[in-house]
Design goal:
CATH superfamily of one domain: Amidase signature (AS) domain
Order of helices and strands: HHHEHEHEHEHEEHHEHEHHHHEHHEEH
CATH topology of one domain: Amidase signature (AS) enzymes
Radius of gyration: 21 Å
Distance between the termini: 14 Å
Oligomer: single chain
Helix content: 25-40%
Strand order of the largest sheet: 1-3-2-4-6-5-10-11-9-7-8
Number of strands: 11
Number of helices: 17
Structural class: alpha/beta
CATH class of one domain: Alpha Beta
């Protein structure tokens, strides 16, 4: 039955439609797979077996009554544990929310329910999505299925590791500066950060409100399309949601007309490992051989992306996390003797070291003496970064870069040096700051059996172009059809 776990969501949907397997049987098989590999991978924070099987049973009943809700009906999906699901834990991998149960559904959860998906469990992450390795989770680390001595990336390492390990066909993550894309590259699957505003953020625990986006993870492009089709669309409850026209993403894969691909020199300089460079250059050569026009471009303000991002991100995180004060719905210290003690001791006990570090940095950047010098200046440079992309998109349709400068590193290799950890986002933060869609595409393997991925960046709401461009590569390369041995 191992092959079942690596079948695409589209194939599983077809088998459900043909009656070759029921949703209950499918869900039970994935639960058994989780029981087998989860001791090694540790991708989940919680699993509600009873609820999942009840959702699967309801799906089978709809199918028997010829009232199927669509191709996602009966398909298991995992949820990163910072997206609200009514009646389920919402910990954000933090002790400060250890016992919190969400009282409502995020918009994306409502959409998944409406599509008949089986929501299988809550997936591990870096605490409050602050990290690039899933080492800062307050509960446990998640391990890279391809090599258990290495990290799966972050902050959404649980989502990507679960999909890569065959524990789930699909998962939801969130991407603030690369948290869907970087772990997707490390785990050898696809990860999409949509255009800012394409998918509702209502019910997403906010880290950096101006860059946060919910995004899908999958092992195949067609599966990514399936999930994106359900998630995309305007939401009146989210003031940042944009009323864009939503195309048929699966149909867009039929657009095989070669386009213009830009290669920015700033992404191929010092710090890029030799094996990643070789794999990315092979991908570029493939596109050239298949009629794509490859154009050298420049994005001159890329050099400022990391400092700009870590000013903006920490400032907004400091503001967003002020709500966790020990008074309302988060952990309250039993050692506190007065109101000030409740604030101080509850946050001291509830937040981990990385969260505290970023709150301190952000509070400093927003202080009255430094706000103009740091936060406001960072926002002005952010505009210049966006203008670089807009200028480039006058000459090219897609921009191709590495997703990460190296393959997944070993546990502990960078956790003691925050600056080195922050540099893991160097290839992904620019698209987040500018709001453009970006897609992580697996393209090979380096040493220690570790995956390598490239990144495709498109203009606003041009997800279809990214998906079609990646699909052309996917059809001709076996690396996307290999699976880890667990």
């Amino acid at each position: 039955m191992d092959s079942l776990f690596y079948q695409s969501a589209n194939t599983l949907s077809e088998q459900l439609a043909l009656g070759k397997i029921s949703s209950v049987e499918l869900t039970q098989e994935f639960l058994r797979r989780i029981d087998t590999v989860e001791p090694k991978v540790q991708a989940f924070l919680s699993i509600d077996r009873e609820k999942s099987l009840a959702e699967a049973k309801a799906s089978d009943q709809r199918r028997a009554q010829k009232a199927t809700l669509g191709p996602l009906d009966g398909i298991p999906v995992g949820i990163k544990d910072l997206i609200a699901e009514k009646g389920q834990p919402l910990t954000c991998a933090s002790k400060i929310l250890e016992h919190y149960i969400s009282p409502y559904d995020a918009t994306v959860i409502e959409k998944l329910h409406a599509a008949g998906a089986v929501l299988l469990g809550r997936l591990n992450m870096d605490e409050f999505a602050m990290g690039s390795s899933t080492e800062s989770s307050a509960y446990h680390k998640t391990y890279n299925p391809w090599n258990l001595a290495h990290v799966p990336g972050g902050s959404g390492g649980g989502s990507t590791a679960a999909v890569a390990a065959g524990e789930l066909p699909l998962a939801l993550g969130s991407d603030t500066g690369g948290s869907v894309r970087q772990p997707a590259a490390y785990c050898g699957i696809y990860g999409l950060k949509p255009t800012y505003g394409l998918i509702s953020r209502y019910g997403l625990s906010a880290l950096t409100s101006s860059t946060d986006q919910i995004g899908p993870n999958a092992r195949e492009i067609r599966d990514l399309c399936l999930l994106l089709q359900v998630l995309a669309g305007h939401d009146d409850r989210d003031s940042t949601s944009y009323p864009a026209d939503i195309p048929n993403y699966l149909q867009s894969l039929k657009n095989t007309q070669p386009c213009r691909i830009g290669i920015p020199k700033e992404y191929f300089g010092e710090g890029l490992s030799a094996e990643v460079r070789e794999s990315i250059e092979a991908a570029i050569a493939f596109y050239q051989q298949n009629g794509y026009t490859v154009i050298d471009i420049t994005l001159p303000h890329t050099r400022y992306a990391i400092p700009v991002y870590y000013v903006v991100m920490t400032a907004e995180a400091s503001s967003n996390l002020a709500r966790f004060d020990g008074i309302r719905y988060s952990h309250r210290s039993t050692e506190a003797t007065n109101a000030i003690d409740i604030y101080l001791k509850s946050r001291e006990e509830g937040f981990g070291p990385e969260v505290k570090r970023r709150i301190l940095l952000g509070t400093f950047a927003l202080s009255s003496d430094h706000r103009d010098a740091y936060y406001m200046r960072a926002q002005r440079v952010r505009t210049l970064i966006q203008r670089d992309f807009l200028q480039a998109f006058q000459d090219v349709d897609v921009i191709l870069t590495p997703t990460a400068p190296s393959t997944a590193f070993k546990f502990g290799a960078k956790s003691s040096d925050p600056l080195q950890m922050y540099l893991e986002d160097i290839c992904t933060v620019s698209a987040s700051l500018a709001g453009f869609p970006a897609l992580a595409v697996p393209c090979g393997f380096g040493g220690n059996n570790l995956p390598i991925g490239f990144q495709l960046i498109g203009n606003f709401f041009q997800e279809s172009t990214l998906l079609a461009t990646a699909h052309v590569f996917e059809r001709e390369h076996d690396c996307v059809r290999k699976h880890p041995e667990l």
